[in-house]
Model the fold of this input.
Amino acid sequence: MSNKAKGSKAERELVRLFTEHGWRAVRVAGSGMHEDSPCDLIAGKKGKKGCTIEAKSSKKSRIYITKAQIEDFIVFSDMIGLKPVIAVRFNREGWLFLDPLKRHLEDSGKYWVVSLERARKKGKRFGQFF
Amino acid sequence: MSNKAKGSKAERELVRLFTEHGWRAVRVAGSGMHEDSPCDLIAGKKGKKGCTIEAKSSKKSRIYITKAQIEDFIVFSDMIGLKPVIAVRFNREGWLFLDPLKRHLEDSGKYWVVSLERARKKGKRFGQFF
Done:
């Protein structure tokens, strides 16, 4: 399976997770590799603040996101008036949710990094986060 | 060109229109025919209320939208906290924008209808609407 197909599959899994919790989520067209989309999902639930979601899954123990991508994600979320959320999934860990506006990501120069250790420490499960 | 390809082309044209006016717009995945997406675009601009957009273009003089689709569109927009907007484009008319929460659509039983005449009367150009 290509990385793009894996990304789409992970996004659809995340859409289902939102749906199971009574949210409604949509995937943004053109998300995945080499395309210029400012986020992967947009989700809402009555009585909650709507969210933009950047989803990343990996079989490795560190996830890298370029600073340009995170900046674009935060600027877009602000323009549209929704709350930016980073969703990460490591092997056998399930989805964990992080706030890019808090110190949940580690700075490594060109990239923001989420390590498995960091995600376990700072990340929250769906029910805790939302 | 298939209806789906025409729809995607019209949506991309609309994304450009938003971009030209300093907005940022994204297309929702799975929009187009026979798919279950609650809107076509999501757009925002700093200082403006974010919008969900349902886009319809036609070479005929009447555009039909099922009531179920409009209801789903309005419910989703409300869940996510964005303003629903209908964008219609008839041949040689350019895009016109309508508010589905006002009496901009005509009731024809199973469908809400936007006629060219109605769109000219009730619809607004981008700069007037937003």
The domain at 3-129 of chain B is CATH 3.40.1350.10 (Trna Endonuclease; Chain: A, domain 1). The interface with chain A takes residues 23-24, 26-31, 37-39, 42-46, 49-50, 76, 78-82 of chain B (CB under 8 Å). Strands of chain B lie at 24-27, 41-44, 51-58, 62-66, 83-90, 94-98, 106-108, 111-115.
